[in-house]
Design a protein that fits this description.
Rossmann fold; alpha/beta; 7 helices; 9 strands; SAM-dependent_MTases_sf; methyltransferase; binds S-adenosylmethionine; methyltransferase activity; Class I SAM-dependent methyltransferase; transferase
Amino acid sequence: MPAPAPKPEILAAFEAAKGFMPVDEGLALYAAAVEAGRLGLPLLEVGTYCGRSTILLADAAREAGVTALTVDHHRGSEEQQPGWDYHDPETVDPEIGLMDTLPTFRRTLHRAGLEDHVVALVGRSPQIAAIWNSPVGLVFVDGGHTDEHANADYEGWAPHVAEGGLLVIHDVFPHPEDEFTGQAPYRVYLRALDSGAFTEVSATGSLRVLRRTGARGVV
Ligand SMILES: C[S@@+](CC[C@H](N)C(=O)[O-])C[C@H]1O[C@@H](n2cnc3c(N)ncnc32)[C@H](O)[C@@H]1O
């Protein structure tokens, strides 16, 4: 059976949105989200940025009749700050001189007609995870790339992946020469496999899809 693919208008909205995720990885994320949506639980993303990947989770959530949740403080990751390779000056709020990707994210979702299917959680990932206590069908980790942030995202959110649910990790680069923003996501991917709670389902570019095959809560 072919993998579920987004409708052309959703794919066009994804391609038009600000962000870094290539199409092949987006299609793999979408297929994972459709599959996880069958559990009837929310789909959660860490790292909203301007909503490029959120579009895909939101459309899969709409199809499944569930909600997409997306977590971000909207102040940008280390490599997105002024002076770094991934900085986009358009994301800076001129009034306060700090990055603020929330307005662009909201425009992106509005244009894609997906606002009703998304709840944006604005704040630091570990702070929100500390007060979160319900299962989710999918966790997509695409937040900060330091070991501190990537591990905190894993420890904070992976325990909430329901049995049979999916843990998706972005920017997994096994070879140091391929990495642009550090290998912390790769180390978290290895940690998830080593835990015995997750089994690899697929690899597309730097995107890894793992399934929870151990009990919920274990990481
Ligand atoms: C690589 S971008 C996400 C890209 C997005 N998923 C996409 O495909 O377009 C990473 C995002 O994580 C956010 N972020 C980094 N560390 C965070 C933290 N500790 N808490 C909340 N958000 C964080 C940044 O603000 C940034 O918007």
